[in-house]
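User: We ran a pulldown and think these components assemble together. Before we commit to crystallization trials, I'd like a predicted model of the whole complex to look at. Sequences follow.
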Amino acid sequence: MNIWIEIAVSALLLLGCSFALIGAIGLYRLPDFFTRLHGPTKATTLGVGSLIVASMLFFAGSEHRLSLHELLLAIFLFITAPVSAHMLARAALQQKVRLVERTRGQPREE
Amino acid sequence: MKRLLPQPGLSLLLIVMWLLLTNSLNLGQLLLGGLLGVAIPLLCRRFLLEVPPVRKPAKLVSFALLVLYDIVIANVHVARLVLGRRDRLRPAFVEVPIEIRDEFVLAVLSSVLSLTPGTVSAGLSPDHSRLLLHVLDLEDADDLVAQVKTRYEAPLLEIFECSPT
Amino acid sequence: MFAYVIPLCLAMLALAVVLNLLRLIEGPDMPDRVLALDTLSINALALIVLLGIWLRSGTFFEVALLIAVMGFVTTVALGKHLLHGDIID
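Assistant: Here's a predicted model for the assembly, 364 residues in total across the polymer chains.
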């Protein structure tokens, strides 16, 4: 395989895994539910997205056939991540999970 | 024609997705995809959302690129906040008044906001006039509202043919 | 080069999975646990994509797609359950 493709795939893999790890670190160490929600919805989604691009590039480079179906996975993730985050946020608001005290603008009771 | 293909865009999308799923481009799969593309919208038409027509396709492409760029920027930003000091975070809830009335465009807006600038959409007021956002690190609420309105809402209103009220 | 990069990536993802599991055990509230479960499924998906690259096989794609779909449906079902105490509206 072309050395440049190898370097690009490696860089994307490392980047993707770092973002996935950062998402998990955010999930573990941030103080309350709503701040924790940010890590997985953004970092993990982008991390997996860049892993998928790396996979596409790898198979295009090693087998000389364009395989686009990984794109389907990326599109699916980018559509579903905000939906599940929104859903969980609504559930958490309804259940009145504990918030960090310094959270400003706490939502009114409906 | 209208009865057979209630949403031509959706049908096209289904065909493309079928071809991606089977990872092939031959006549058989194309026909099967076409069959699915016609059958699924017909079977689901009772509960499909009405998608407003795209008025400016070129603008849509540039908006998609902007969002993609913002996703990367937002991720670097969130990564720095996650790895930084915990007690320096300034989490907040912000309510953004929105002008978009169309359900589909509203869903697009809240998804984009969840993916981009350090915000997660957390709820919608019952009359669909205000969107509740949770911000990880808020500097100034008015700035954020202005940014949401000019950077994301205005282009969406311009792209999709739906009258702002 | 891949001989070094891929094990490193696997280790990073494994660490991510461990952190998710810790959050899953610790809670403290139900939404936290559901969120941890959702992240766990996305990380499992990343592991599978990586395994597909390592073993140079395209057949892992279907597995990854299935995990993505099941993870999403599970999260939505659990979220609905938390919201209404009922899964079907």
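Chain C has one domain: 2-84. That may be worth checking against your pulldown data before setting up trials.

User: Thanks, that helps.
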